[in-house]
Every structure is written in structure tokens, then in C-alpha cells.
Write a structure and sequence with these properties.
OB fold (Dihydrolipoamide Acetyltransferase, E2P); 8 strands; single chain; five-stranded antiparallel beta sheet
């Protein structure tokens, strides 16, 4: 089954698109209509900006009790990542053991299947973080 057009067109969900304030240059993700710093509104030059997809772990934790729709599932790692554009994003870190996670670890964003929505089994996707193997 393919992903419905509605979901594919959520640019911040599938393309990492935020906005940059044309006045102060700050970047926000997810997009905002008003810059919290200088109060500039979107029709006054808040421009779309695609994030690079690379950042560093600034904090992390291991979750032992997943949401009911995620069971059965082993414990997973949640991180807050500071992206290259100075925005912070929360997400799931995959492809690494908890003992190997470090603050300052370089990560990339990867689009992954997150689950199904509705009894019809519509698949939805989102981003997860993966360690950079340099």
C-alpha cells in the first residue's frame, strides 16, 4: 500500500523543512508563522529552509515502557539533537546500543516507517536518527 498524498505533502515531516526568519535569521523546526525572537510574521519574510539532516546528540535517555501501540518492543533510545542549523529536534536513535551513545555523537536523520494509522493499515513515516560512521 502506498502512502496517501496527504501524508507525503507534510514537508516538515518528510523533508525536514523549517522556516528561517528574514529579519533575525533564526531557524525554526517545525515551521512557525511568527518568529518568537523578533515577532516577524510569515507573510513578512519567514522563508522555508530545508535542514541538512545532520546534528549532534546533546542529551539522551532509554525508554523502558513503550506506548501501547508499540508493544511488544525492547527498550529504545530517545535523543535531543542539535542540528547544524541550531534547532533542537527530539527523536528515536537507532542502530546503536545504549552503552555506546555519547553526548556530542554525530547523527544523521533517516526517513523510516513509524507505524500504521487507522484500521485500514495506512502506513506513516517519520524521521529517526542514526549514528554517523566516519
Amino acid at each position: 500500500m502506498t502512502m496517501p498524498r496527504y501524508w507525503r505533502e507534510i514537508r516538515q515531516r518528510y523533508k525536514g523543512v523549517g522556516v528561517e526568519c528574514g529579519k533575525c535569521g533564526r531557524i525554526y523546526f517545525p515551521p512557525r508563522e511568527v518568529c518568537p525572537h523578533c515577532r516577524r510574521k510569515s507573510y513578512e519574510k519567514m522563508e522555508e529552509r530545508e535542514l541538512s539532516g545532520r546534528g549532534k546528540v546533546i542529551t539522551y535517555t532509554q525508554v523502558h515502557e513503550p506506548l501501547p501501540e508499540m508493544k511488544p518492543m525492547k527498550p529504545y533510545i530517545m535523543v535531543i539533537v542539535e542540528m547544524e542549523e541550531d534547532v533542537r529536534v527530539t527523536g528515536n536513535l537507532v542502530n546503536v546500543d545504549y552503552e555506546d551513545v555519547e553526548i556530542g555523537m554525530d547523527v544523521d536523520v533517516e526517513l523510516r516507517r513509524l507505524g500504521e494509522e487507522s484500521p485500514e493499515g495506512i502506513i506513516y513515516y517519520g524521521y529517526k536518527f542514526i549514528p554517523v560512521n566516519d
